[in-house]
Amino acid sequence: MAVVAVLINHQFNMKLHYFISVLFLLQLQLVSAQGPAKIRFNENWQFTLQDQLGYRLHDIDPQAWKPVELPHDWSIKADFGAAYPAGNAGGALPGGIGWYSKEFKLPAADQGKNIQLYFGGVYRYAEIWINGVYLGKKPNGYLSFTLDLTPHLKFGNQPNRIAVRVDNSKQPNSRWYSGSGIYRDVYLIKTGPVRLDEQETFITTPEIHGELGQLKILSKLNKLSRSNGVAGNKYQITVWDPNGNLLLKKTGVEKDGQIDASLQVERPQRWSPIAPNLYRVQLTLLDKNNTVEDQIEKRIGFRTIRFDAKTGFYLNGEALKIYGVCMHHDLGALGAAFNKSAAKRQLVMMKEMGANAIRTAHNPPAEELLDLCDEMGILVYNEAFDMWKKRKNKFDYHIDFPTEHLKDIEAWVRRDRNHASVILWSIGNEIREQFDSTGIALTQEMAKLVKSLDPTRPVTAALTENNYVKNFIAQAEALDVLGFNYKHEDYDKLPIEFKNIPLLASETVSALQTRGVYDKLQDTIQLWPASSKDKYVVNGNPDFTVSAYDNVAAYWGTSHEKAWLAVKNRPFLAGTFVWTGFDYLGEPVPYPYPARSSYYGIVDLAGIPKDVYYMYQSEWTDKDVLHLLPHWNWETGDTVDVWAYYNKADAVELFLNGKSLGTSAKTADRLHASWKVPFEKGELKVVKKRDGKIVQETSMRTAGDANRVKVSLEHEKYATGESRDLYFVTAELVDQEGNSVLLNDQEIEFIVKGDAKVLGTDNGFQADLRGLHRPNRKTFKGKALGIIQKIADTPCTVIIRSALGDQQIMI
């Protein structure tokens, strides 16, 4: 009966999502009839990895090309290989040059409208043609851009053709995996000839006094309307509260193409990580007949932010330690192709761990990621660049920086400044101009531009030089907050070297781990590699793994525990951003190929937590946490280091086969309990007591051989209401008693029956060379993940096939 109830509930939710989608489309049609229309433009594209300039022409026939749906990353569709010029630091995957083509028609009724094409992100060097007419080139692979198609379009039965050339052939151009292609959403935007300028629309909540909050709306008409002297248009501002109730309306008349309006909101509900209250603000442009000409809608949050040099960060007037993680833009087996539910999965896992902030390392994210952060109450440290004029790779952004950086800064800030979640603008990470005087002028130039576009948020950069006289970015005295990466042993020097300026640990840790691997524990933290003299670790593990005990780090970093304690105990540090929340493709320190993805994450590439996840959860949340490690399958005669992460107790007690092995507790410099235990088959159990009473316990048993595959499904938790929401199917090996089996990995295949497809599979192992797009995967330490997407709203079956027999699950 429980299974039936789950299926009925699931089908109801699917129908509800479908109903909401239909309502959205109807609303879109109504709006387009009387104003703007924003139409997702991801379907029916053709793609080829051949390169011919003739592909730009209107009359080409791309039928032999591969049909694709955007977002699309062509690199992730390959198997990993040593010969690709990006190297294993770039993910050991190919770049190249690709062409996209799409034919579409516009109804005759669209004549006279302004029609634009919005690209959320194209990596890299995108060139675009409409009907054979060249529209321009966009070098930056991480920023969105909009192109005006209006003068070049055909209407009625005459077809139009968009052609996009994407050039990611010059490698290496990144220190991590970048992906290749049109990897974020594309929209077709239709408006009237007189319209609001999206980039000039800025809604702020500059002041909150007592029970009154100020709402300020700035906007402009589009340049053509202003240049033609269009004036006297009426506008209407409508505000809904976080519960969807109509709060207020205000009308006015634009002046000289400008809108500058202020409203007061009584008792505004504040936006915060605990209560991410969002108000909906709609700005409508009306003609003389009160017909809608254009409309822009934003979600805003009433919140105040402040950084203090002595006491850290304040949100809404209250001190808040920033518990942050750095996040790269790839989504594991999906590569760079953005999917909102996959991104939500990462954010939910980080928030459940206790994180209240992310750093978009080291480039602007998809705008939809910021939407999620607004909704979920996650603070965002929004970063623009990983380099300026001085390169880190031969073909990286330094080539384009001289001509593009100010345009890119402007596009970045204008796009993201309406998001309540964004609290910091970072103009760079570990920039090499720190070390010479050119850093002064560049810092001043960019910081000044950011503040002219958004005076409400502080500007920062992630620095490595902690000596003021050697740090020319700091000497520019243009930054509002200074972020420092690593060197935790020097934290106490920072307020002395950099006086009277707020400080932040913008990047910490760089510890290395492979989930489920436990090497013999050493007395000191192992540095892999040991110093900058070594490109790779010497005498690492021959199987390219790293122990999951929190005891191995890159030479510039330290353990998770030491890094967090260094920030936790210093009020002048506003918070921390751990490198990293998730493993990511590329940058596989400490190993050469075949390692092809990072070891830094708190969660592995498949989205399975490593043990240290529970250390953070025990420190950053009020949840009752008790986590025991390692597994309990060893050899007779082994002595095993047993750890427990816990909170909300004075100590914890360990039992082996019912016999107490004593209590252990955290200390001033250690955030786990520990015991050395001679191995003995059976049950290992840890018990947590509070006020003398047992409040929590957890245990593990020595496992037998793998007997079956246990299957679990995650979907609703990460659903966003879109048709592209994914189903995450985890396959776990268990023995006859249901105990997890880590040491007897099996080949697994994910098979779908019905209107669905397998987008990718993963097991979290950083040196697995099978392409992540493939439907079959060997488990690693007993687990593997399948990512499924439904094509239609009909029931489908997922079969998980192995030598242990078939298991199936309905989606």
List the helices and strands and how they pair.
Elements: H1 2-34, E1 37-40, E2 45-48, E3 66-68, E4 96-104, E5 114-119, E6 122-123, E7 126-130, E8 133-138, E9 145-148, E10 160-168, E11 181-182, E12 186-191, E13 202-204, E14 208-209, E15 212-220, H2 223-227, E16 234-240, E17 246-253, E18 258-266, E19 279-286, E20 292-300, E21 305-308, E22 312-315, E23 318-319, E24 322-327, H3 340-353, E25 357-360, H4 367-376, E26 379-383, H5 401-416, E27 422-429, H6 438-453, E28 459-463, H7 472-475, E29 482-485, H8 494-497, E30 503-509, E31 526-527, E32 552-553, H9 560-568, E33 573-579, H10 613-620, E34 626-629, E35 639-646, E36 652-656, E37 659-664, E38 673-678, E39 683-690, E40 693-701, E41 708-714, E42 726-734, E43 747-753, E44 756-762, E45 776-778, E46 783-790, E47 797-801, E48 807-810
Parallel strand pairs: 24-25, 24-33, 25-26, 26-27, 27-28, 28-29, 29-30, 30-33, 31-32
Antiparallel strand pairs: 1-12, 2-3, 2-4, 4-10, 5-9, 5-12, 6-11, 7-8, 7-10, 13-15, 14-15, 15-18, 16-17, 16-19, 19-20, 21-22, 22-23, 34-35, 35-38, 36-37, 36-39, 39-40, 41-42, 42-46, 43-45, 43-47, 44-46, 47-48
Helix pairs in contact: 3-4, 5-6
Query: Quick one: biggest sheet?
Result: 8 strands, parallel, barrel
β-strand amount: 25-35%
Question: Over all CA atoms, what is the radius of gyration?
Answer: 27 Å
Whole-number mean pLDDT: 94
Number of helices: 10
The coarse silhouette is globular
* Poorly predicted regions: 1-33
How many beta strands in the DSSP annotation? 48
Distance between the termini: 17 Å
Helix content: 10-25%
* Arrangement of strands in the largest sheet: 24-25-26-27-28-29-30-33
- Helix/strand-derived category reads alpha+beta
> Assembly type of the shown chains?
single chain
